[in-house]
Amino acid sequence: MQGIWPVAQIREAERRALAELPDGTLMARAARAVAKEAVGMLGFSYGARVVLLVGPGDNGGDALYAGAELARRGVAVTAVPADPDRLHAGGLAALRACGGRLAGLADLAPTGQGHADLVVDGLLGIGASGPVRPALLPLVRWSSEQPAPVLAVDLPSGVDPDTGAVAGPAVRAAATVCMGALKAGLLVGEGRVHTGRLRLVDIGIGRRLPEPELYRLDRRDLRVPAPGPSDDKYTRGVVGVAAGSAAYPGAAQLCVGSARLGGVGAVRYAGHAAAEVVRRWPEVIVADTVAEAGRVQAWVVGPGLGDGADAVTSLERVLVSDVPVVVDADGLNLLVERRGLLAGRTAATVLTPHDREFERLFGELGTDRVGAARQAARDSGATVLLKGYATVVAEPSGRCFVNPVGTPELATAGSGDVLGGLVGSLLAAGLEPGLAAATGAYLHAAAGQRAAAAGPVTAGDLIAALRAEIGRLQAEQRGLPDAAPEPNSDSGWPRPV
């Protein structure tokens, strides 16, 4: 897992590093990393044209020193300052010494002529929050009008570093070089989309950072339990599914379909769609009610359950049980008037709301998705899986995970039913709640990417893709080769530069 830190902790680590290292060390390391990434994006250096958008702080200094590195390699570098009187003096001197020049926007060629092969955003760093200042707005807007890709230094200007919120115009980068430590704003909210491909650079502050409470899940952290030589279907774990209704039998089929795949030996279904479930999945054990279902190691309750008396009874019986429970969809809606059911729980609970369900349960979500999920988990005593393009999982302890894999193709009917079944299965197979939820979110998104490669995605497609994705993961864990592509997201995979 990769740690993610709030700006206050990163700035303190930088302060300590600056006091212990030779003057200019951190900026030199950052500038070299930006220059290296720029050359990689360009594909060549001699004769390339790069425009630097330069702010007044250290972020602008990083950009200027990077421009000097590029100029030494034969790149034609033009720096456009937000305020010519407030440029980093050392960076400006270095750029000029290598042949770089200053210019205003009016001095550049018209947009249609393509006056740059790459634009470097060095306007604002992690010290900025809220809307971009008026003096910088023309440069931000200009960057969005260019055919050339944008490389952001540490953070796209206009993105809040702690929340990912974007309040007005902001730079949309093709790639971002992140200095020293991951910031939540690069990975959640609108910031995730503005960041582009993410590269994490070690500039020497890592050992000065405290233990994080927020993590970016790494594929190497994933585990789907596999049977051993002495296992039978019961020792592997049994998951119960209370889902579906006469109106929504498909929800039961989808939830059960994914619940079969998370490492358990059997699935018990309780509800009014038993005939449809067995027709699709004949290996499933069915019962009319939760009370008749038999012993399980975890429950999933809610998808397609409806809001009638039977649905309420199913939710109540599941939540008074002594096993972990995943509550999704209609189960979440029923909980709004029955929050007391969570208070008496002795086993773990995982809630899986999308934004509107979250707000019905916990109030306004706001722009800080991590903070909102964390507070909801503390208030409810449950692990909260807040669904979205960058899904956040928050434990009652305060520890959180951000899912690094995402695809808009998962915004389709029944997708959440598949996720709920998978998380419940992972719980029944023995994973602890936070990792079960985070692992389920990762594999669900990776399956979405796999399915999307073949065309538009439906929830039914996800089950077959999920089986293939879990098979790929287990093959990796056994050290077997697999030719399937690595899952990715718009943010890419942070790696040292």
Which tags fit this structure?
7-stranded parallel beta sheet, elongated, UDP-N-acetylmuramoyl-L-alanine:D-glutamate ligase, 2 domains, disordered C terminus, 11-stranded mixed beta sheet, 497 residues, alpha/beta
Number of separate domains:
2
Round the mean pLDDT to the nearest integer and report it. 93
What gross morphology would you assign?
A: elongated
Largest sheet: 11 strands, mixed
Tell me the radius of gyration.
25 Å
Strand content: 5-15%
The assigned CATH architecture of the largest domain is 3-Layer(aba) Sandwich
Pairing-aware structural class of the strands and helices?
Answer: alpha/beta
Distance between the termini: 18 Å
- Please report the number of helical segments: 16
Enumerate the strands of the largest sheet in spatial order, edge to edge or round the barrel.
1-9-18-17-16-15-14-13-10-11-12
